[in-house]
Specification:
455 residues, 3-stranded antiparallel sheet, Cyt_P450_sf, oxidoreductase activity, acting on paired donors, with incorporation or reduction of molecular oxygen, 44% helix, Uridine Diphospho-n-acetylenolpyruvylglucosamine Reductase, domain 2, single chain, Cyt_P450_B, Cyt_P450_CS, alpha+beta
Length: 455
Amino acid sequence: MQQHFDPSGIPAGCPAHGNTRLYGPEFGSDPERHYAQLRSMGPSAPVDIAPDVEVELVTSYDAALYILQNPGSFVRDSRRWNALNEGRVPADSPALPMMAYRPNALFSDGAAHARLRQAVTDSLATVNQVQLVRQTQQSADYLISRFSSEALGQAELMAAYAQPLPLLVFSDLFGCPPEIGDRVIVGISGIFEGTPGADETLGAALGELIALKRSQPGEDLTTRLMVHSARLTDEEVLHQLVTLLSGGTMPLTAAIGSSSALYLSDQWPNGLPVEDAVVQTLWNYAPIANYAGHYPVHDVELGGRTLKAGDPILISFAAANTDPKLTAHREQLSAKAHLAFGAGPHACPAKDPAFLIASTAVESLLNRLPDVELRIPFKDLAWAPTPWSRALVTVPIRFTPRTVPSAARATPARPAQTAQPSSAPQPSPAPRPAHAAPHQKGGLFSRFLAWTRGA
């Protein structure tokens, strides 16, 4: 039940004390209060996404759909960004890594976007769902084995489980040999932790991966991107990999952590399946909270405000999903009507695999640690003070200590309820080259592969 949106029919307001700041501890502790204030100003309002970086933030569900589904008037190419072109954005701004142009599908429009996106969607379509469930369960078993035998029966779920699990699954999906997979994980983790040189680490590792696949192609997503009929250059392949890896791991980490915490909380009714907890997380705690930069190609009237051509507009997926005008009739909507995966031509191409990984990760945790519980109430958990994502800082848990067997001997307790066999025949994974044999003293991916082989 989507309401028709009239982009010029909602009166706007004006804050009396400058732009709302969408960063820092105050915002992180209570983003909904900030969104409510912004909603009082109309479907969109000016905010500071970082120091000295102003954007227009869309908080209305219908206005968000209007922009996301109108690529003729709102494009994604941030080379149109007026303030950046005029030198008004600090060179060291934390907004630049998230908003500055990159030659990938996310920042492309028209035919260029269609070409790059087709290569990505076609490659993702070859992922076997049953195999993906097994990869996720195996990664979950390994990570749980690392903390489940602790004598105190306590762990911090974000650092020990939610953060590394997508990295292990993705390293395998993209066909990384151990030593490259280790550096991919270090690079991606470093980007989100602000580690100097993390971009260079990730870029160098992916460059090596592409060179390896040129000489030794495999049945993995990297090879499928490289051999696609769109004929991507190595540079284009690298930038699509960066987007898929960095743009996929952070939201999955947030979704796994928030869904696990929600399911274990007193707020969650007994008997509802894990998938419902993931759906509620996507609605109420959108992992990508504020993003999707758009640039009007001409001046646009939105709720009485004039949005100038070339000035950035960000979509608040978090605010749009909890828009009071929407929540009044949300039960009548499809469970997939949320905007956590975006909408329109730039909607997330990996939404189905992402949902499957998140659901399987939560279910695996519950299967392996059946008495796991939160150590503090869900309402008291702290959220990261960043505008870009809605992620818990920590999820302290307790459980009865136990031993999880090696994946080589383990049998999954039960498959995730969303797993469905792929209708198309899928090739078996190619054997890894001999030079890539894992060893116990390597990084996380090397140790994981050694564990799966009983080493």
